């Protein structure tokens, strides 16, 4: 007789029930039949696995070792069956790709590319201000993939079981100011040019307030800072009430300007997260699609294009960055080993 999966289930059932009678009832068989099967298993393995005592069946030293190794094998097999059935059900009703993202102008191009590459896939999008919340949803199986940003100096807490890859190592953060602001006349703005201005920041965005506070403090500035969302901020910028940080892919409007800051004092890292080992299948090309969409969005932003072309004049030479010509593929830089990112 060769040892089979059903034999491992028998051994675990006896260990769990603590008696042949209880195990037989759990397995839906008779106690004599189970006793015969146990003897055959013990004969195959060459040793006694359970000893009968007044209190029931107790695993021997050999039995504890076999049961201990059988449990993870059965758990892995059960997971395989569950996941395969779920995949088959998704296939029967059409594939579904659940995407989470913090705000980005790359999203429209990303979704367009996914639709073109996966015509039979239903794509769901959830945009949130909290990168941490999105990562938790991926870890919990509520999302398949999340595109998030990590503010420099404020590392995200990455749940266990996620693979996190970098799209852009360091994206500079620009400033948004009224079109008639004196500093808007220059291609690059010094923080000291904004010393008299009031700032606005969204405190619900992970790391945003901490990053801005650090940058202003380093520049010796202590301006008044309002808390608000960026939809409100856009209107207040246009009227000259405030200035605020913004993504470099943002496009200027007639009533406000987008400018890089001298020295690029604050940057973010753009990250793509999935559950460990999930890169493949429908997720095989999501990173490449996102990367293409990001640089497409960057190409439509004149301030960002100017920064890319004149980076040496605008920023500190030691700042790491990623140019589209050098970003052929996503690089795995941080599989999460524990509860927090490095």
Description:
- Mean pLDDT is 85; it is low at 312-342.
- β1 (50-53) and β2 (56-59) form a beta hairpin.
- It is elongated and about 90 Å long.
- The strands form four sheets. The protein has a six-stranded mixed sheet, sandwiched between helices.
- The protein has eleven helices and 13 strands.
- It is 39% helix and 21% strand.
- It has 342 residues and is of the alpha/beta class.
How many individual β-strands? 13
Poorly predicted regions are 312-342
| Derived structural class | alpha/beta
Q: State the share of residues found in helices, binned by percent.
A: 25-40%
Oligomer: single chain
Shape assignment? elongated
Helix and strand element order: HHHEEHEHEHEEEEHEHEEEHHHE
Query: How is the main sheet built?
Result: 6 strands, mixed
Beta content: 15-25%
Kindly report the spatial arrangement of strands forming the biggest sheet.
4-3-5-12-6-13
Could you outline the blueprint of secondary structure elements for this entry?
Blueprint: H1 5-17, H2 20-27, H3 31-45, E1 50-53, E2 56-59, H4 61-93, E3 95-101, H5 107-117, E4 121-127, H6 131-139, E5 145-151, E6 162-172, E7 174-178, E8 199-201, H7 208-218, E9 225-227, H8 230-238, E10 244-246, E11 256-259, E12 267-275, H9 286-299, H10 302-309, H11 311-314, E13 331-335
Parallel strand pairs: 3-4, 3-5, 8-9
Antiparallel strand pairs: 1-2, 5-12, 6-12, 6-13, 7-10, 7-11
Helix pairs in contact: 1-2, 1-4, 2-3, 5-9
């Amino acid at each position: 007789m060769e040892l089979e999966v059903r034999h491992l289930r028998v051994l675990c059932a006896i260990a769990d029930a603590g008696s042949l009678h209880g195990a037989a009832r759990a397995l839906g068989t008779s106690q004599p039949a189970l006793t015969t099967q146990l003897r055959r298993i013990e004969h195959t393995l060459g040793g006694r696995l359970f000893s009968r005592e007044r209190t029931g069946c107790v695993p021997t030293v050999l039995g504890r070792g076999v049961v201990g190794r059988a449990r993870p094998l059965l758990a892995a097999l059960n997971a395989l069956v569950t996941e395969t059935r779920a995949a088959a059900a998704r296939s029967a009703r059409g594939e579904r790709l659940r995407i989470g993202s913090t705000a980005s102008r790359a999203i429209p191009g990303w979704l367009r590319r996914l639709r073109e590459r996966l015509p039979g896939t239903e794509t769901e999008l959830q945009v949130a201000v909290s990168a941490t919340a999105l990562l938790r949803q991926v870890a919990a199986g509520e999302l398949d993939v999340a595109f998030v940003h990590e503010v420099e100096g404020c590392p995200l807490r990455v749940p266990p079981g996620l693979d996190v890859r970098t799209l852009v190592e360091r994206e500079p953060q620009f400033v948004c100011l009224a079109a008639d602001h004196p500093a808007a006349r220059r291609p690059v703005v010094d923080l000291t040019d904004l010393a008299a201005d009031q700032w606005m920041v969204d405190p619900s965005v992970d790391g945003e307030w901490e990053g801005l506070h650090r940058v202003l403090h380093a520049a010796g500035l202590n301006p008044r800072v309002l808390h608000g969302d960026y939809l409100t901020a856009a209107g207040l910028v246009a009227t000259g009430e405030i200035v605020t940080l913004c993504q470099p892919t943002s496009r200027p409007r007639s009533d406000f300007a987008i400018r890089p800051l001298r020295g690029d004092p604050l940057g973010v890292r753009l990250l793509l997260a999935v559950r460990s080992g999930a890169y493949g299948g429908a997720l095989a090309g999501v990173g490449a699609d996102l990367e293409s969409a990001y640089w497409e969005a960057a190409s439509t932003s004149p301030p960002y294009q100017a920064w890319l072309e004149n980076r040496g004049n605008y920023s500190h030479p030691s700042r790491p960055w990623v140019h589209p010509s050098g970003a052929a593929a996503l690089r795995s830089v941080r599989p999460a080993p524990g509860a927090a990112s490095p």
